[in-house]
Design goal:
Layout (H helix, E strand, L loop, with lengths): L5 E2 L5 E2 L1 H11 L7 H9 L3 H25 L2 H23 L2 H14 L4 H20 L2 H8 L4 H32 L2 H8 L5 H10 L4 H4 L4 H37 L2 H8 L14 H24 L1 H35 L1
Antiparallel strand pairs: 1-2
Helix pairs in contact: 1-15, 3-4, 4-5, 4-8, 5-12, 6-12, 6-14, 7-14, 8-12, 8-14, 8-15, 9-10, 9-15, 12-14, 12-15, 14-15
């Protein structure tokens, strides 16, 4: 393969490997960079992981128990679990390069805000045919209005965990199918618009790389890729849940009379401080149904062909681009090492 160095904007040569690594970092894929992955693997030794989990569990138990004694056991459990998650998240951000993934996720989330209206207009009609019947169901109001504080958010976290539990195996299956069937056209399409585009063309021209073998992703790289793909899907789900929440808040405030709410839940509705426009019970029901809608949308998007074509195609394109770019990057590093 000929010299893969090119001129930068200031007239300085740019190493394509370094440019590719910067591209991986910018797109939330730090574990695709060999040096970063080696450093993270060293920080995931069994002794260190056990010590971090032990300290986090102890801290969460202490804070959760104290909170539960002052408030309620359910709130204490939610607070304790949150402390443990916060502790583990802090360690991941500092030691495991998760800050790179988090930074990409924030950019992705804010960059996707403009998709809220198009997503709502495409997905809400299909969802509301089913969800609206739950909204005007007496039992749903009785259940949701009784979910106080930590119990409600524990239910939302359960919906989120279930959605991710359904999504991850599906993404892993899609990845396995893609890396078994990758062709040169897929490689060129994946590298298009990246610092690896020229190297990909040279690699295809050489024709001496076993693409299905090189495209196999495992270990931390698999975890990193699945996290990025899950985040990309979660952004869609959260935007949709926000749209569902807003719809039911407006619909409930306009169409559901307080007397009807009282007949459903057995007590007069209560209101936050300020004008009595939206009751606490309506907020709880809208929040509960928004969380359930996110779960329903996730499951349907990976099982129903119509939803899949509409909302899952972008995720699959990102998977293909990441895997294809990784193949070129690995071959570049191998050839540069051989030439040293």
């Amino acid at each position: 393969m000929p010299d893969r160095r090119r001129r930068g904007g200031a007239g300085q040569p740019v190493d394509p490997v370094l440019a590719a690594e910067a591209w991986f970092l910018h797109h939330g894929l730090p574990y695709f960079v060999d040096d970063v992955r080696a450093d993270v693997e060293a920080k995931l030794s069994r002794a260190r992981v056990v010590s971090v989990l032990g300290v986090g569990t102890l801290l969460g138990a202490l804070v959760g128990t104290g909170t539960g004694l002052v408030t309620s056991p359910s709130t204490g459990f939610a607070v304790g679990a949150s402390v443990l998650v916060l502790w583990l998240g802090t360690y991941a951000l500092r030691a495991l390069q998760a800050s790179v993934i988090a930074g990409w996720a924030l950019r992705r989330a804010f960059g996707s805000l403009g998709l809220l209206l198009p997503l709502a207009t495409r997905a809400l009609p299909m969802l509301l045919l089913f969800i609206t019947f739950l909204f005007i169901n007496t039992e749903v109001w009785q259940v949701a209005s009784a979910l106080h504080g930590g119990v409600l958010w524990s239910a939302i976290l359960f919906f989120a965990a279930a959605a991710i539990g359904f999504l991850v195996p599906r993404l892993a299956q899609e990845l396995d199918e893609f890396d078994d069937q990758i062709h040169t056209d897929d490689l060129l399409a994946a590298a298009e618009g990246t610092p690896l585009e020229a190297a990909a063309r040279e690699l295809v021209a050489d024709g001496d790389v076993d693409l299905p073998e090189e495209a196999q992703v495992g270990g931390l790289q698999m975890v990193n890729l699945l996290i990025v793909l899950v985040v990309a899907q979660v952004v869609q789900v959260v935007l949709l849940a926000v749209a569902v929440f807003g719809f039911f808040i407006v619909f409930g405030a306009v169409a559901i009379d307080p007397a009807v709410v009282e007949s459903w839940i057995g007590d007069a509705p209560t209101y936050p401080p300020g004008p009595h426009l939206v009751s606490v019970q309506l907020i709880r029901v809208a929040t509960f149904l928004a969380g359930f809608s996110g779960l329903y949308f996730t499951v349907t998007a990976i099982t129903d062909d119509t939803y899949r074509r509409e909302f899952f195609t972008v995720i699959m394109k990102e998977l293909q681009r990441a895997v294809g770019a990784r193949v070129v990057y690995r071959e570049l590093r191998r050839r540069l090492s051989a030439s040293d």
